[in-house]
Specification:
4 copies of one chain form a homotetramer. In chain A, the strands form 2 sheets. A 7-stranded parallel sheet of chain A has the order 3-2-1-4-5-7-6, sandwiched between helices. Chain A has a 7-stranded mixed sheet with strand order 9-10-8-11-14-13-12. Chain A has helices spanning 14-23, 44-47, 64-70, 83-92, 109-116, 122-125, 133-140, 151-165, 195-198, 213-224, 258-269, 316-331; strands at 4-9, 29-35, 59-60, 73-76, 96-99, 129-130, 145-147, 175-180, 203-204, 231-236, 243-249, 275-277, 293-300, 305-312. Chain A is an alpha/beta fold. Chain A starts with a strand and ends in a 15-residue tail after the last helix. The longest helix of chain A has 16 residues, at 316-331. Chain A contains 12 helices and 14 strands. Chain A folds into 2 domains: 4-149 and 317-331, Rossmann fold (3-Layer(aba) Sandwich), CATH 3.40.50; 152-314, Dihydrodipicolinate Reductase, domain 2, CATH 3.30.360.10. In chain A, 64% of the residues are buried. The radius of gyration of chain A is 19 Å and the shape is globular. Chains A and B meet through strand 8, helix 9, strand 9, strand 10 and strand 11 of A and strand 8, helix 9, strand 9, strand 10 and strand 11 of B.
């Protein structure tokens, strides 16, 4: 196939290096340009020795014209808020943009402003497609602006949406208790990600106020056909990668057996390349480095609750891998192209 | 003070070594006897080099008469099911027994049989006191048989009981999502505790069927004055020690501010030596090696839920430390005796 | 290209699953057969959920005729000592055998017997080729029996051999202090690989008696053109993957600058796909999941020593990846075929 | 006994919090004053929740008169270079000073200037006593200025000094390969201590240029009665605490059996409260939180080398614990006072 020229804007964070790892072996693209504000002038493999022998491009300062001259597709791995002007400039120059920040994920500028502050380009929101191919495959084909989902939303939405859509669980009262590795916090050093502070303990953070909440609610409400307001508690775990989302729901019928939930998940994900319904509790250790999602469901008959779990590698299916999968969907390539690797276990 | 002679029966597991660590610096006791079935003939500090220079006793095969000749108080750190005959033999010989297994924790032999199978000595259950001094201090004084609580129950009960007792949260629909370090699984090697399998990932286990569930329900029902049936999901984390219990409850009044929950916790634990109400999310890293409990509460006003957390070191306040604290209560010693150490952080 | 049918015998250990991960995306082979003694009847993706969607073959009991009917190339991932009869049976049936055990690595049956006991098929040793393409590329082409190197030897030999060959360091008095993740110990649970025992500490093991010693000496002696007797100390670290070999050597000229050592390494590895000479201390975190080797050298001018380091992923370049690279060399495929992925960092 | 009033200057780093943990349970002292430049006004237990219920003092800005008014003994846990003026001011006011930085560890201002730059108060060096009681017990009694040793030197010197003193190993050609947990790097966040960068890998740092080198050489030369120039390579491991120093030496007699080295170590450390000679490889996991040192020796008869190991908790025997032990020696208290705890294992 003819290779598509792609650029990565914001190449020096963990999402950036993961994009480079994946794109460097993708048979349908050629990596032609890297931007990295603070690291302009440095080679990618100097920034990340893991790329030695794989990616030798030098990072540039961002210049929309340069990116447009070099690439047809751009991935933006920028901090929240910084994507808007970059995306606009690249869209104006005719590029397809896959943005990995939160800037275009919410359909409602109002919702955005409640959690992030005023949106700098609300007019772009309508055209943006939520980049989760399992949910938005049809609209992704040929899309110009893709909002690649967040890591917690990916693990959570893929676990819960089929059960809400099938009316097996109530949209009210959902609890999402999520556990994440430290790479989700990015590469900027802080006390909260300092090894000795977090290397051998667990704690929650941003209790009842994490910004991924409205994104989860938006997509689950669409699946449920009803508003969803849920409780979301993220936790930081002593591991680099992985998200496990443990969700608690009230069944619409308390007598329904576990098999019904598993069957609904299997029916929904039949034919999906990356989502696997498992009977054992999903383990993030099985997913490291791969784009797979493991989902499962249990019934707590005594308490009349359903426990639903979704697990991913936060940097792959939760970020860079999903972005590549979405790009494949946009370009009409088979979705698994370049994403065929199994998880690196152990 | 005159030192009390104490024995540890089952000295070769993690609970055993933790008892030895704590008892070896306790100013009110003298460690006089160790039993360890498989390791009889070995010195404690050969089994556990961490004890070099601290505990040089040699492990014996269990013999009730020997224990009775050597000690007035016995701690049993045996697998579930093995404590009953040992406890009976030592009680008959006049010893005070603190049992760290599940054998005497449930008041109802019926409940026990549902989760563990038939109880071998239901007649002993009535006299056993649940060894959580914060709840059962009065009955512990002079008790002969103490059922030291489990690790998950300790973190969970101490977080939720005050809010139930104060009628701030509903007893129905409680969700307990707990995270534990690997030492809670004991010292017997298995694939499920093999480093490479679990060292860099997270997973749930025994979903909706963990045997600590009835113990939590029993004590919370007492606090609530109403039956409690809850959903409990334990998770295994890549760390050795620590339990964080993240609990989700429905408030009895959805408009109540966070301060009310914090105040109820503070009021309940005022004067307690080991329970601290914290405003930041409790972090198990702060608690390692110490007997402290950190509890906190948050309100999710949007979703009308209360999030309550309890964190402990599973081997200290969740096992050996609580056992020593209970012994202090039994003997009439100040509860912090021998337990004064802060957590080893980082 | 036409795909070659390959079998994996011993598919249920960590080397086995890593072979399956790599071979399942290799464009030149088709995985046609798996043997796994204890797990016969189980699907590979049931044994290892990381393979879900990637490898759905069912493990068989080993039967040489079946393997021969199914495959032209066989990888043996068996415990030391078990490979000999399997290799012989497959060689007799015309297969090409890549053995990942130690059974065929030593050229001298005498050396073998000193470290492992009597060799069961010394007549096969002469024909076996040491499967490190950087050293034995020419002999690998068309080889019938390949002895894939051990993990410690790979990291150590690739670091030291060029400096010995260039007569920059003395062959006498070499010290090798190696650090390994726990996956090198395999998948069989034991106290020595139990999470709580090793998850937060470091220790040496098999001091001055590890069986990889003669293998390192054999290859370094060849490079040096002189006998090599060295001190080798492996250490177990709290991580799953990675080996760092820190080597100490006496320079043949104490005034020689660092650049000379780096230049010798660069000259030797010019054109090699997988070996990279780095100026920063090699970090196993950069190598996880990839087949790369990072080597570097430092001069301690004060003490007149040279410090040489080699780092790899023990399961990839230290086992399965090197086996695939060797197979490529045997079959005349470009060596990087199927091994193009960068390390999974972080 | 009458309690001595003590202050901690620099209470907000990891050495500081460890001093607070230890001093808060020391029966011979009362903690009366904390200084912490950046955290003045904060309570110690707000900075470190591990201290809740144990240390409630509020940190002050440093003021020598205030410290002198409050305490008779001061521990300085300040960055290298900052201790000199503080120590001088407190000495002038009559306090006993235990400094945990490198400022007073080297006897020679020349040596200091080679590794650290010009010394700001060379006249104080002569009076400073190296605070390792096992070596300098006699001079510590009544000392006014104690230079508490570094972590790497402690593990290394205690392993090697007895064998050098007994002329069992050569002073020339010593190799020290050391492995450390991340807490040794302090509490200031940086990319080099960011969890995701270092949480699952190993690397060396400051190869042949670490500033602990001259300190090790100074004390070993004294033991050997001859100059010592050695090669020292520190490594960073994915764990919070612990140092293992693996040392390689040439025996003065290549035929000498292992028992001779073990015997020399045992003879030297007979009666020492904290140093234990072990036959298994020392494991830092056994030492966490305690002041113990485990040392051992092996003979590599083939290569005519002796492998000597020392392991400690870097924050206890490698910093705060050794400081308290040294204070006990200064004050004439039994050295184990307040340091009786076993390692927290697992």
């Amino acid at each position: 196939m003819e290779r598509v020229a792609v650029a990565v804007v914001g190449a020096s964070g963990y999402t950036g290096v993961e994009l480079l790892r994946l794109l460097s072996v993708h048979p349908g693209v050629t990596l032609t340009h890297l931007s990295a504000h603070k690291n302009a002038g440095l080679r990618a493999d100097a920034l990340f020795p893991s790329l030695l022998g794989r990616v030798s491009l030098t990072c540039q300062s961002f210049d929309a014209d340069q990116v447009a001259a070099a690439a047809r597709v751009a991935f933006l791995a920028l901090p929240h808020g910084e994507s808007v002007p970059v995306a606009r400039a690249l869209l104006e120059r005719g590029l397809t943009v896959l943005d990995l920040s939160a800037d275009f994920r919410l359909r409602s500028a109002d919702d955005y402003s409640k959690w992030y502050g005023p949106h700098a380009a609300p007019e772009l929101l309508e055209g943006a497609v939520y980049g989760m191919p399992e949910l938005w495959r049809e609209r992704l084909r040929g899309a110009r602006l893709v909002a690649v989902p967040g890591c917690y939303p990916t693990a959570t939405i893929l676990a819960l949406a089929p059960l809400l859509a099938a009316r097996l669980i109530e949209p009210a009262g959902l609890i999402v208790d999520a556990k994440s590795g430290a790479s989700g916090a990015g590469r900027t050093p802080s006390l909260g990600t300092h090894f000795s502070e977090i290397g051998e303990g667990v704690r929650a953070y941003k209790v009842a106020e994490h910004r991924h909440t409205p994104e989860i609610e938006q997509e689950l409400a669409r699946a449920a056909g009803a508003p969803v307001v849920l409780t979301f508690t993220p936790h930081l775990l002593p591991m680099s990668r992985g998200i496990l989302s443990t969700c608690y729901a009230t069944p619409t019928d308390g007598e329904r057996p576990r098999a019904a939930y598993l069957e609904a998940l299997r029916a929904r994900y039949d034919g999906e390349a990356f989502v696997h319904v498992v009977e054992h509790p999903p383990d993030t250790a099985h997913l490291r480095g791969g784009n797979a999602v493991h989902v499962g469901a249990w019934v707590d008959a005594r308490a009349r609750k359903v426990v639903v779990m979704g697990a991913i590698d936060n940097l792959v299916k939760g970020a860079a891998g999903q972005a590549v999968q979405a790009m494949n969907a946009v370009l009409g390539l088979p979705e698994p192209t370049g994403l065929g690797g199994a998880g690196v276990f152990p």
